[in-house]
């Protein structure tokens, strides 16, 4: 039975009918739905949700009455109450689940509220993406109904005082819909395992018993899993054991650095499908095969605002300024970087998630992820984004025909001026000086500010090549193995010091 043929509940089927109204109207409808549901909460009463709903311009009124938050501010003022078991704080009822998230740079865990309403919205978006596959070239419906290997966090959640906490992928897997269970791998028993290496070993052991057509997860961990399977069974490619493997659903980081390494493991091309699933919600998904960006989930369970990511709205550390002026979906421009504020069906209100995006198609509401508000380098005004770094490294590695799946960059002193220090992962033979020079040259073309500063205060660019396992070993030393954990593309502060100490001890 093909997955695409399964009949869905009428309520979900209704939600899947894409409305013809404008993005602005869709978003205002979502906002009103969120406000109506949360108006009797402590937050809703404080910020007069009833008054906002009755306003002629609810979006603008919402922005006037409700302050913006980051994790620290909303936790200190509101979310800590939900962890104490108090109901009706930012969303109706008690919060029973929390996604543990530390982003990619901070060591302390963040407790992100997860509600049934949020999970339901996430599932609707997932189904929309699934149904969009019918428009892909060469699609075989039989493949959609085969196995889906979802490599996420453990479903064995931590028990708190009246709540459970864990990786979002673990919470999602624990609540897999009944109709998806026949297709879901590695299955509930393996998914429950907490030790990443034990889980990986068990997946490798069971691999011959599965007929996998989809793999879903963070590129680094999926690649590691496939390499172990190929090594264990002495295969030429992963298709020797999974001949129907056709799709890779990925997200969280740019896939380009991993693509060359992936292709070495394959006997035939895969269709790559990008998603944007954060702990706070399913934000966007690729709904067209050759789209440059992902379609925002504008008519489901998230209300979006966008803050231009520039010096007028953010300080040098990536903190949003009190004077920042967010805009709504109908006010954005193509080609400009924005930080995202979201309001969700889990009680996140005007919440800065820390990601930056750029609109590739305003009419279709399609975006690409360009980095994070904290993960950029602007020591002297070079305004170097993760998107710039990804692109420059991709071009340089293609020219040199080498695979560089991981990298990170740090700003360091250079006399009385500054330098950029690159650390790249590769098991190929790489001329570090040549790669460094090529990256530098490409960045000068990609980023005018960078080109200017390379003639003044940004005096040097350095590059060190490290074995691939060093990056994974460092994540393991921080307890960030598997699941949604990703290596930070920019290192600062304590994390940079820890990294430098780690590699000095390893090399």
UniProtKB/TrEMBL annotation:
InterPro entries: GH3, GH3_C, GH3_M. GO terms for molecular function: acid-amino acid ligase activity. GO terms for cellular component: cytoplasm. Pfam families: GH3, GH3_C, GH3_M. Residues 388-492 form the GH3 C-terminal domain. Residues 299-362 form the GH3 middle domain. This is GH3 auxin-responsive promoter. It comes from Flavihumibacter petaseus NBRC 106054. The lineage of its organism: Bacteria, Pseudomonadati, Bacteroidota, Chitinophagia, Chitinophagales.
């Amino acid at each position: 039975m093909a997955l695409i043929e399964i009949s869905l509940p009428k309520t979900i089927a209704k939600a899947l009918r894409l409305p013809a109204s404008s993005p602005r109207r869709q978003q205002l409808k979502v906002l009103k739905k969120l406000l109506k549901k949360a108006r009797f909460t402590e937050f809703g009463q404080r910020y007069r949700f009833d008054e906002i709903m009755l306003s002629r311009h609810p979006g603008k009124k919402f922005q006037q009455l409700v302050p913006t938050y980051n994790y620290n501010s909303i936790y200190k003022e509101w979310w800590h109450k939900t962890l104490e078991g108090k109901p009706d704080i930012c969303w109706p009822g008690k919060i029973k689940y929390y996604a543990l998230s530390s982003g990619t740079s901070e060591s302390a865990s963040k407790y992100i509220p997860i509600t049934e309403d949020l999970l339901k919205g996430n599932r609707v978006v997932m189904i929309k993406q699934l149904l969009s596959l019918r428009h892909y070239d060469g699609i075989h419906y039989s493949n959609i109904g085969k196995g889906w290997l979802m490599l996420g966090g453990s479903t064995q959640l931590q028990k708190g005082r009246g709540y459970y906490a864990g990786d979002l992928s673990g919470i999602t897997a624990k609540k897999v819909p009944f109709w998806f269970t026949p297709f879901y791998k590695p299955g509930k028993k393996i998914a429950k395992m907490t030790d990443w290496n034990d889980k990986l070993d068990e997946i490798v052991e069971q691999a011959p018993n599965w007929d996998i057509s989809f793999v879903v997860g963070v590129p680094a961990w999926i690649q590691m899993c496939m390499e172990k399977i190929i090594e264990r069974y002495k295969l030429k490619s992963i298709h020797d054991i999974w001949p129907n493997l056709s799709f890779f659903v990925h997200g969280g980081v740019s896939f380009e650095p991993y693509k060359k390494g992936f292709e070495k493991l394959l006997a035939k091309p895969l269709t790559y499908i990008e998603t944007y699933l954060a702990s706070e919600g399913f934000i966007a998904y690729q709904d067209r095969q050759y789209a440059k960006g992902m379609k925002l989930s504008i008519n489901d369970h998230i209300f979006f605002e966008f803050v231009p990511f520039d010096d007028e709205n953010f300080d040098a550390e990536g903190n949003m300024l009190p004077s920042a002026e967010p805009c709504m979906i109908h006010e954005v421009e193509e080609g400009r970087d924005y930080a995202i504020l979201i309001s969700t069906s889990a009680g996140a209100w005007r919440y800065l998630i820390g990601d930056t995006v750029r609109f590739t198609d305003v009419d279709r509401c399609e975006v690409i992820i360009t980095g994070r508000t904290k993960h950029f380098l602007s020591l002297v005004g070079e305004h170097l984004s993760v998107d710039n770094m990804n692109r420059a490294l991709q071009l340089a590695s293609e020219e040199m025909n080498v695979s560089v799946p991981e990298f990170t960059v740090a700003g360091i002193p250079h006399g009385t001026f500054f330098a950029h220090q690159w650390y790249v992962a590769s098991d190929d033979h790489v001329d570090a000086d040549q790669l460094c020079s090529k990256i530098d040259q490409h960045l000068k073309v990609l980023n005018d500010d960078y080109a200017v500063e390379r003639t003044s205060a940004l005096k040097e660019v350095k590059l060190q090549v490290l074995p691939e396992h060093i990056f994974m070993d460092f994540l393991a030393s921080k307890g960030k193995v598997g699941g949604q954990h990703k290596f930070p593309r920019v290192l600062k502060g304590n994390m940079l010091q820890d990294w430098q100490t780690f590699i000095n001890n390893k090399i």
